[in-house]
Amino acid sequence: MKSPADLPSFVDAFAPEPLTLGRPEEEQAYVLDGLLRCGACGGTWEPGLRGPRRVPSYGCGDPECAAQPVLRATLERAVEEALAKELGDAARFEQVEQGLRRRLARGSREDLLSPADAPWMLGLVQDFRFLWRHVVPQSQRKMLRVFVDHLLVTRENVFIAWAIDGLAGRLE
Fold first, then answer.
1. Stated pTM of the model
2. 3-state DSSP of 58-90
3. Dihedral angle at the C-alpha atoms of 108, 111, 115, 120, nearest 10 degrees?
4. Do strands 158-162 and 169-171 pair parallel, antiparallel, or not at all (unpaired)?
5. Within 88-158, where are the H helices?
6. Nearest alpha carbon to residue 55 among 81, 33, 28, 35
């Protein structure tokens, strides 16, 4: 795909708003909100404006925790890269497809997935990076929740707990 006009019809099934090029400038959505866990204390990482410059970041919600916050742009970019790398591996497509189908068959997380979702989920695997860069943050969150159960943030790494069987990864 080279332009948003090339987006397959399955995208309409999950895009709650019209697709736009890039992120709307005024949008301050935190794409990873609700997916981050602290590797130091086990708490939940929360989005917010931190530091004297009020920079968009994610940090542990426990004020007693010593874990350092991470810039929103840095963490979101690292997660995008890890997902694109994992899902962009042509050799893994069949494995990911089978994992998605098993997940649907189990009926887990039915609030997010149903058998009717299979076509667009498989389309995500094939065109993840392109779609990620062309949908609004709300749609990016839904894309993430197809593949990611949660992210465990430590001082050195972010570990991805995949929601799909057979995927494993770590962000460095």
1. 0.71
2. EEECCCCCCCCCEEHHHHHHHHHHHHHHHHCCH
3. -110
4. antiparallel
5. 93-106, 118-134, 137-147
6. 28
- What's the one-letter identity of residue 8? P
pLDDT at 9 over 60: no
Residue 126: pLDDT band by 50, 70, 90 thresholds? confident
Q: Judging by beta carbons within 10 Å of its beta carbon (0-12, 13-18, 19+), is residue 110 exposed, middle or buried?
A: exposed
Q: Which of 26, 46, 28 is nearest to 36 (CA)?
A: 46
Task: Pick the range with the lowest mean pLDDT from 97-101, 117-121, 154-158.
Answer: 117-121
Cα distance between residue 23 and residue 29, in whole Å: 9
CA distance 172 to 58: 17
Q: Are 56 and 170 spatial neighbours (Cβ–Cβ below 8 Å)?
A: no
Query: Which band of pLDDT confidence, cut at 50, 70 and 90, is reported for residue 118?
Result: low
